[in-house]
């Protein structure tokens, strides 16, 4: 199959372009894209344990452990034992983390708005549906 007919390269290129734009947007706030994604998820889901956070952020549990260790060291999140499940740590954004997130989110949202502005409401709906079909096709056919 010739490269010109393969969709994978196009999808990967767009994903890399999006991540590069977001990295440039959040870097002045002292964050990486994975750190920003974790903070975003935690602002919407306070107390979420690391394993759930990893699934939501589409990273491995090991990667999320490293991300959280770095965020804790930066004073942006805190981890405390769950009141009923002693071996589960709840993760919450600190005030400093919320301030860093708010600054980063303002910039990252601009990236998302620029991207969304390229499409009409109907085109965005169709694009999401097409991407969902891509994902479904790839996940249903895993060996």
From TrEMBL:
Ion transport as a keyword of this entry, yes or no, is no
Molecular function (GO) terms listed?
Answer: DNA binding; DNA-binding transcription factor activity
- Record domain HTH marR-type: where: 1-136
* Top-rank taxon, per record: Bacteria
Name the keywords, alphabetized.
Answer: DNA-binding, Transcription, Transcription regulation
Q: Does the keyword Transcription apply?
A: yes
One short Pfam family name for this protein?
MarR_2
Protein's UniProt name = MarR family transcriptional regulator
Q: Which organism is it from?
A: Lentzea tibetensis
């Amino acid at each position: 199959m010739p490269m010109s007919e393969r969709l994978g390269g196009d999808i990967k290129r767009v994903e890399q372009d999006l991540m590069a734009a977001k990295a440039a947007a959040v870097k002045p706030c002292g964050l990486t894209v994975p750190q920003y994604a974790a903070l975003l998820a935690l602002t919407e889901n306070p107390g979420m344990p690391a394993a759930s956070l990893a699934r939501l952020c589409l990273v491995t549990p090991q990667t999320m452990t490293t991300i959280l260790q770095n965020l804790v060291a930066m004073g942006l999140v805190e981890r405390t034992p769950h009141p009923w499940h002693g071996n589960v740590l709840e993760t919450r954004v600190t005030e400093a983390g919320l301030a860093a997130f708010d600054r980063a989110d303002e910039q990252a949202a601009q990236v998302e708005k620029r991207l969304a502005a390229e499409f009409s409401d109907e085109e965005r709906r169709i694009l999401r549906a097409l991407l969902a079909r891509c994902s479904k096709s790839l996940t249903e056919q895993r060996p």
